[in-house]
Every structure is written in structure tokens, then in C-alpha cells.
Amino acid sequence: MISGSAWSSSPPEKMRKHHHFRILLVEDNPADVLILEELLEEVHDFDFTVKDVSRMADCLAELGRETYDAVLLDLGLPDSQGEQTCLRLKKEFPDVPVLVLTGLEDDEAGTRALRMGAQDFLRKNQFEGALLGRSISYAVERQRIDSELRSKTRQLAASESRIRQIIDANTDAILVVDRDKIVQFANPAAEQMLDSRLLDLIGRPFAYPLSRVGTCGQEEPCELDISHRDGSMLVAELRMVETVWNDREAVLVSMRDITQRKLNEATLKRDAEILSRLRDAIIFTDLETKIEYWNEGATNLLGWTAEEMVGKSYLCRYSKEERAATLKRLERLRAGHAIHREREEIRKDGSKVWVEALAYSTLDSEGQPNGILIILRDVSDKRKLEGQLNQAQKMEAIGTLAGGIAHDFNNIMMAINGYTQLANMASNQPEVREHLDTVTRACSRATTLIKQILTFSRQQPQERKPTQLYEVIDETIALLRASLPSSIEIVTTLEPAAPTVLANAGQIQQVLLNLGTNALHAMKGLTGHLEFILEPFEVDTHVAEQNPNLQPGKYVRISVSDSGHGMDKETLQRIYDPFFTTKPAGEGTGLGLAVVHGIMKSHDGAITVYSQRNVGTTFRLYFPVHIDTVVDVDDESAPVPQGNGERILIVDDEESLLLLGEKSLELIGYEAEGCANVIEALERVKQQPDRYDLIITDETMPGMTGMDFIREVLKLRPGQRIILTTGYSAKLTPEVIEDAGISALLPKPHSIHVLGTLVSKVLKEG
After folding, report:
1. DSSP 368-407
2. What domains appear along the chain, each with residue ranges and CATH number?
3. What is d(CA 366, CA 553) in angstroms, rounded to the nearest whole number?
4. Where are the alpha helices (DSSP H) in 96-184?
5. Taken in order 637, 641, 643, 649, is the CA torsion positive or negative?
6. What confidence tens digit (pLDDT) does each residue in 502-561 have?
7. CA-based angle 573:577:580, to the nearest 5?
8. Residue 625's beta-bridge partner residues?
9. Distance of alpha carbon 514 from alpha carbon 512, whole angstroms
10. What Å distances lie between residue 235 and 177, 225, 484, CA to CA?
11. Which residues contact 435 (CB under 8 A, 6 or more apart)?
12. What is the DSSP secondary-structure string of 7-52?
């Protein structure tokens, strides 16, 4: 029996197993050390290894170096006394079990030591070995349990702290709401999301509805609109799960701000709608060409629907040869190169369409290719317009060449013709005058040839008058009927009230006869019809975009249609080329449609054609509604009106024409003054602005054009009467002439009669 022990019961069965303990004995009395070692040797249930030290400093150093199962500690040491000895030891090594050894009269010190962390205390010389062994064994076990409990407590506290940190740092609002809908807990994110302080949330009813939690313990998420005091709104996704709070049933509520996600979803939906509505085909494939996206534009362009194409290879529409070529281009795409080209694509119905194709690889977040984006744009109209532009440029080049030759030839012919007329008027010899008449007739034929060349080149100064096309078509049909076989029927739909246009009736009749003759040839040996339609027509922006020769505005349109064999695309591309014909040798020159094209251009109009094999052909002629501003002069053999000495300035860089003009005007009663240098002529006007009753100027001169000269003259003397003479007038429309302040236009070549009549008319009107 040992008095003073904190533990007096027998060790449990599991503690009786053989176990080895390392004991550190802290005792400064050698006799006590020897007694304790002997007592421990008497214990049979346990094995002990004892090391002894006599000072606290040595004890602490030893515990720092080695591991011991227990410490037997005397409270009275040379360098440490009383319960502070135990306190110091437990502070530095809290997990080492300590058994305190006290003297006979030191029970109070032992009790204090227990409060400071000792596992037991024993009075010296009052215990036997078995009790000492059991006390050590119990102390070790109690310390292990205490250490585990402290470790679990620390772990639990750390875990709770981490959970609290996670909850507090979470951007989702987290709340605990009891069955009475009272908020028991809320994290800081709930303050911001619900626009309320924690003090105003906890302990108060939850302001939003809670759905009944399902049998699985978790409700499907729902969305809530939450308004803030500043008027802003956010959308929150609310989730609930059953939980327990302070031993009572509750609901754990999490609320996530999905405002940006909803905006992104709306943006994605809008972008998807835009992509689906684009006229361009937008196609996305993976790197192996499997189609993942196919918009409505692709369906409209190519014919296949998204349901038909998504999941299939982009190459499935191509032949084996085309697939091989496309695979090579895919390697370029995978390498990061873009492809931009025009090509023909196959439609679902087997037809082909020209597209502008743009393809490039898309990249993932690491910059690696993850797909291929393909954009196809229908460029059929663009290629058609390019073809029309190329045709126009080709015709323009040919016309410029022919016009340049004709212009120079005009000046030569005007000199020849003018001086021949002067010689004829001055001669009294019948034989000479007869020869001169022959020269004049030859000049007339040459002038007619020049007009034909200028008509083809679209530079012929048209003698156009206000014309009712109804009458021209009616006369043309009468001419065509004579050569019409009985198998061909002429059908007409003519609007008598169609507006007047500025036109040369003879040339328009030539156009219609050419088209009618071609139509009859196309229906040779067939039963069919030739149709003429005359109607007012409003050219809108869409029609103008389809034909670069048309501007939005009011037109009169003539349609000439046949039910003949039609033309293929290759033929349509060349129909206006000079000398191109599909007729057998000897049956056509190939100039008919080229002349038609030139005449329409010279009338500020346009021509379009639609044709299909075995269906027929339709030509449409567009004439702008126009008001005539060109002075009409008839070249007749009547006496030339005589002048009254009016002073006229003639400006022309051609010396021969200048001299001819002076003599011609002086012959019919005018005072003529010539000037071959346009700059000098302008200086004369500057010095005496009121000197000239009339100025006649050429259009094409070195140093300054006739139009520029006219503008400068009108600045010096507004209202000055001016006649512009030119060998061609492609750009001199009636509007241009009127806007420039020109009194009249005098085409080259012209006779003395035309010159005298026009001069007299302009002077009288002025």
C-alpha cells in the first residue's frame, strides 16, 4: 500500500502485457537513485531502462537528444525547486509523461504538480516496485490519450478555422436558415449579394422563398432576381440542402451571382442568331474536318441543312481528286496559315456557285490549333460585274482607238470639205464646180464612214431629239414583218404613254432591227414568238448594283425576247466582241451587237441580256428619261442666214480649221477673229470682256480644254454667248452643256450652211 498516489486501482488487462519503457530519472540524491533503480528491477510485468541526471538543465538537454517514455522528477533540484520544476518541464515537453517524487511532508507540492501537468506523484520510500511500475505504465497511457486528444482538438480547431476561412472567402452567399425561415448564419458574401449587413440578416426571416427540399435532400437550383438599394439588379442561382444547426433541422442555402453568366448567355444567343442570319456560310470543323457548326447561311448557299452536315466530314461533298487537293490545303491550315481564294463550290442540287473562301485555324488557350473556321461568300454577282467591267474596258479601249482616229480624220475632212465649198462658191466655171461637187460628195461619204466608226466607239455626237420610242418600235416591227416566216409570231406590249427620251430615232431603229434579226436567226426552223415590250421603269439601288452602267432614276425600258435556242455562258461572255459571231461563215460580220452596245452607251443608256439554252433570249434596253438641250440645226441647201458685222472670236489649235472658220464667217457677213492659242484667247477676253458678240471654241486643245476655257470666260463675262465645237462628245450630255452655260454644240465636221444657221440662231436667242 502506497500513500499519496493519484491512481490506486489495478492496471487493466491490456496493460499487463510485457512492455519496455525508457525512463529518465531526475534526482540529485544518489541514495534515492539507487533505491528507485532497485525497485524497478523488481517489476516483472515491465522492462525498464533507466538513465539518471541530477539537474534540470541536464534533464532538458537529455529530452532534447533522446526519446523517453516517462520522467521520474524530484521537485527539489539544485537548479530548480518546487512546482516550477514540473511547470518548466511540461512547458518545453508537453507530451512526455511526468511522475513527481515528493518528500514525506510534501503532499501539497505534489498536488500542485498534478495541476501543472504531472500524471502522478509518489512519496519517496513509501512504495514498492510493482506499484511504481504500474504508476509508470498508467502515466504513459494517460499521457498518450491526452496527447491524442490535444492533437485531435488542434486538428478540429484547424479544420474549423479552414472551413470558416473557406466560407468567409467564398464569393457565393452561404446561409443557414432554420425551419421557421430564420437566418442562423451568413457569410460576408451574403452581405454584398443581399445588400444587407450581417447584423440585419442573422436572426431575421429570410427574404426570399425557399422551395421544399426534395427527398434526395437537395433541391434543383432556381434563379432569383435581387434588387439593391442603388437600383441595380442581379440574378442569383439558389441551391438548398438539408442540414442540422444546433441540433435542429435547418437548410443550407448557397446563392451564386450569375448576372454575368446570364449576360454572356444572352450575348452568345445573340451572336448565334447573328451567325445564323448571316448571308455568308459559316462552317466550323475540328482538325480532322468533322463539321461541328453549320449556319443558316451555309444552308442557303449550298443547300444542305445543319442536321444533314453536322458530324460529317467537310470533304464528303467533294470528289476523290478534290479531296486530295483539299487535304493538302488542310496541312497549311493546321500549320497556322490562312487560305483566301475564289473557287467553285458544289451545291446539293449539283449546280455550282462561285464563292470567296476564307479559312484559318482557331487556337486554344495555349495557342495550339483546335479547329478550322471556313467562311464562304457568294461572289457570283461580283464575278458577273467584273465580267461586265472587263467587257466595258475592252470596248472602251477599242472605242478610244477608233475615236482618236476618227477625231483626227474629222478635222482633216472638215478642212477638205470647207475649202471645197469655198472654192465652189468662188468659182464661175461649171466644169470646175462639177468637179468640186464630186469632192463634196466624196467628203459626205467619208463623213458617213466616220459617223459609223464613232457610233461603234460610242463617241459619235448624236443628233438626238425628244423621241417617242413607241413610234420607233412600231415602225421597226412593220419592217421586220416583211421578213418574218409564218411560224414566228410577233407579240407586243407597248405603253403609248411611256415618257419621251432623248434619242436618235434612226440609230434606235438600227438597234431594234439588229436584235430582231438575231432573234429570227435564233428561231430559224422553229415555231416561236418574238416579243417587244415598252414600259416606264424605275431603276432602284438594287438594279443599279447589278449593272454598273445604270444609275438610280427613271428610265424607259424596251425588252426584246425570243423563244429560240438561247446561248450558253461562254457565248454570253463574248456577244459584244467585235467580229464575234455564231453564224456560219458568210452569214454575219459579228459587228451587229457591238454596234448595238455602242449606240446604247452613246445614248447614256444600258443593255442587259438573259439567255438559257433551249428556252430563249431577252435583251433589255434602258433609256434615261431626258430633256433635249442641244440646239437642233438642219443642214439644208437653203440660203445661209447673213450676219450684220457681229464680232466673233474663233479658238482652235488647228490652223487650217481656224482659217476656214474665219473665211466662212466673213463670207456670210460676220467680222471673224481667229486665235490658235487658248491662253492668248483668254487674255484677249480679259482685256476686253465685252468685245465679242459670240465665241466659237474647240473642245480639245493643248494647254486648256474648251470646257475650262468656257468656265474662265463666263467668270469674266456672265451670259457670254458661246458655241462649243468638237469631233466627239461622249461626255457632253445635254445636262453638262446646260450646266456649263454653253449656248449650242456644233459637231465636226459641219458645212458652211450649218455653221451660218447655228450662229444666226444663237445670236438671235441671245
Report:
1. -EEEEEEEEEE-HHHHHHHHHHHHHHHHHHHHHHHHHHHH
2. 13-151 (3.40.50.2300), 170-262 (3.30.450.20), 278-378 (3.30.450.20), 383-457 (1.10.287), 465-624 (3.30.565.10), 647-765 (3.40.50.2300)
3. 56
4. 107-115, 129-169
5. negative
6. 888 888 888 888 888 888 888 877 888 889 999 999 888 878 777 777 888 889 999 999
7. 95
8. 501
9. 5
10. 20, 5, 81
11. none
12. --SPPPGGGGS-EEEEEEEE-S-HHHHHHHHHHHHT-SSEEEEEEE
Instruction: Kindly give, in sequence order, each residue whose CB lies less than 8 Å from that of residue 49, ignoring residues fewer than 6 positions away.
Output: 20, 21, 22, 23
Residue type for position 199: L
Report residue 289 as a C-alpha cell. 474536318
Rounded Cα gap, residues 629 and 745, in angstroms: 10
- Rounded Cα gap, residues 294 and 309, in angstroms: 7
Q: What is the pLDDT of residues 438-495, one digit of tens each?
A: 787 777 767 766 665 565 554 444 567 788 888 888 888 887 876 777 788 888 888 8
Q: Which of 344, 294, 282 is closest to 318 using CA atoms? A: 344
**Spatial separation of the C-alpha atoms in residues 246 and 268, rounded to whole Å:** 45
Alpha carbon distance 638, 576 (integer Å): 42
C-alpha cell at 305: 441543312
Residues 6+ apart with CB under 8 A from 618: 559, 560, 561, 562, 609, 610, 611
How far is residue 63 from each of residues 113, 365, 707, measured CA to CA in Å?
A: 19, 57, 118
SS3 617: strand
- The mean pLDDT of 54-73, rounded to a whole number, is 89
- Residue 254 CB partners (closer than 8 Å, separation 6+): 172, 173, 174, 238, 239, 240
- 43 CB-side CA count, 13 A: 26
Burial 166-184 (b: 16+ CB within 10 A, else e): eeeeeebbbbbbbeeeebb
Q: Do residues 454 and 403 make contact, with C-beta atoms less than 8 angstroms apart?
A: yes
Handedness of CA 600, 606, 612, 615 (dihedral sign): negative
